[in-house]
Amino acid sequence: MPERNPPGMLHATWLVARKDLAIEFRTRTAFFSALLFALLGLTIFYFAWDPTAVAAIDLAPGVLWVIFVFSGLLGLQRSFSVEQADRAIDALLAAPVDREAIYLGKALANFLFVAAVQAISLPALALFYNLPVSQAFLPIAGIAVLAAIGIVSVGTMFSSMAVNTRLAELLLPMLALPFFIPIVMAAAVSTSRLLAGRPVADVMPWLRILVAFDLVFVVACTLAFPYTLEE
User: Fold this and answer.
1) Which residues in the chain land under pLDDT 70?
2) pLDDT digit string, tens, across residues 116-131
3) Helix (H) or strand (E) holding 69
4) Rounded Cα gap, residues 198 and 26, in angstroms
5) What burial class does residue 153 get, using C-beta atoms within 10 Å of its C-beta: 0-12 exposed, 13-18 middle, 19+ buried?
6) Residues ≥6 apart with Cβ < 8 Å to 160
7) In degrees, to the nearest 5, what angle opens at C-alpha 177 toward C-alphas 66 and 76?
8) Which residues are CB-contacts of 156 (< 8 A; sequence separation ≥ 6)?
9) Which of 211, 216, 210, 91 is nearest to 157 (CA)?
10) 3-class DSSP assignment, residue 6
């Protein structure tokens, strides 16, 4: 039989992402847990909100991004833990693919996971708080995409580092949350200004922060990932 060439970087990335998505599609436990957490958080904040004290436009962006971050952590936690029970990660590492492709594949699967939660939570937020999102929907969606890229780039990296520890559920938030602060700050301020009717040009400095964060950490985490898997 002719020898098959190992898959290239892009093909290997898609294969890893497709594997993770197939596992999640069969169980759906992490997705429904994250979605339930997001919707429950929105509900709790809504009933605790006093509209006479804080305007909806002022409260909603902070609520939205705090919920996105913590619901995203639920998905990031399972990124590597799903393969720990049977040590499937050993077979993945033995596959003839670059380890950078493993990171990018898992990050892609995590991005689609977080984006799916965002796609349902954002309309729910607009419904709960009666927000005028129709005019600013596309810019806010772009902010959500940029923020999701930053969250999963850092979170996937730290998930690989924390998965073999005894307190992985605690260690991952401790490692990742400080790096999420610039993302949450830039995304929340941008969202708040757009909902207030400001033009997109008014939030460009914050969007540049998100873009710079994404570029730096996607590249840095991709290059550093192979070293996190060394025994």
Assistant:
1) 1-7, 82-95, 168, 229-231
2) 888 888 888 888 888 7
3) helix 56-81
4) 43
5) buried
6) 79, 80, 103, 106, 225, 228, 229
7) 85
8) 76, 79, 103, 106, 107, 110, 221
9) 216
10) coil
Cβ atoms of 72 and 30 closer than 8 Å: no
Q: In whole angstroms, what is the distance from residue 29 CA to residue 6 CA? A: 32
CB atoms under 10 Å from CB of 149, counted, come to 22
Q: Six-digit token pair at 126?
A: 């607009």
Tokens 């840095």 locate to 220
HEC assignment per residue over 153-173: HHHHHHHHHHCCCCCHHHHHH
Roughly what angle, to the nearest 10 degrees, separates helices 99-129 and 204-228?
140
Q: How buried is 51 (Cβ within 10 angstroms: 0-12 exposed, 13-18 middle, 19+ buried)? A: exposed
Quote the CA–CA distance of 112 and 63 in Å, as a whole number. 21
**Mapping DSSP to helix (H, G, I), strand (E, B) and coil, where does residue 83 land?**
coil
Q: Which two tokens stand for residue 52?
A: 């006479």
CA count, 13 A, side-chain hemisphere, 27:
12
Distance CA 158, CA 138 (A): 30
> pTM of the prediction?
0.86
pLDDT, tens digit, for every residue of 201-218? Answer: 888 999 999 999 999 999
